[in-house]
Amino acid sequence: FAIGLGVSPDKAVTIPNGIDTAIYQPRDKGEMRAKHGLHPDAPIILSAGYLIERKGHHRIIGVLPRLWQAGIEAQLCIAGGAGREGSYEAHLRRTVAETGFESTVHFLGSVPQTTLAELMSAADVFCLASKREGWPNVVHEALGCGTPVVATDVGAVPEMIPSGDYGIVVPASDTAALAEALRKALRKQWQRSMIANWGRAPSWHNVAQDVLKQFHWILRREN
Fold it and tell me: Are 93 and 57 in contact (CB under 8 A)?
């Protein structure tokens, strides 16, 4: 954004948000499903964030029928509560009822970070269908748990998922592309250890070191 406003690229350095790698780390999928009462074998999609329109939970609900028609009987877990933009939960629940997927979509409410990390490990795919984001930390948190991510191309998402080895990025307004990406992601054999290594790279320690390095560089120039 700064470069777009005219800042010289050689004077701009992007340092990502960090994640707590003590929390966001791979866990045994089967154990996490049993712990949280999730189906042991069904494909599970996890979505997380405030229950507001902008987060796009309704878009994921809307593509579930397409997945089932394709033979993928996916379960959707939504973690999150009301945000400052108001609650969209009533609309989400109506959408679920209209599609007839009440037994397939699970509203988990707001959960602690440790629980969210366990749910990420339990899921086959994490999905972020937002129409607007900055640097959504939840993407790196899911990746840090070894979970592939399907996300819309908003904010820094394309930088966070630079390769098909870690997930799939789709246009924010393309429902068909979202459905196809989830279908592919749920059928692909992912290398979850490689995903975890990528997601855990921006630990708070590493990010702090990057910030410190830049300040040292600035001080050297000033002197």
Answer: no
The pLDDT tens digits for 93-147 are: 999 999 899 999 999 999 999 999 999 999 999 999 999 999 999 999 999 999 9
Taking the C-alpha atoms of residue 212 and residue 222, their distance in angstroms, rounded to an integer, is: 15
Tokens (6 digits) for 76: 């959707």
Instruction: Round to whole Å and give the CA distance between 47 and 39.
Output: 16
Beta strands in the chain (DSSP E): 44-48, 75-79, 105-109, 125-128, 149-152, 167-170
Neighbouring CB atoms inside 10 A of 91's CB total 13
Look at the pTM and tell me if it is higher than 0.85: yes
Measured at the CA of 48, the angle between CA 46 and CA 53, to 5 degrees, comes to 115
Q: Using CA atoms, how far apart are residues 80 and 48, in angstroms rounded to an integer?
A: 6
d(CA 143, CA 108): 20
Model confidence at 223, pLDDT cuts 50, 70, 90, reads low
Q: What is the DSSP string of 53-78?
A: GGG-HHHHHHHHHHHHHTT---EEEE
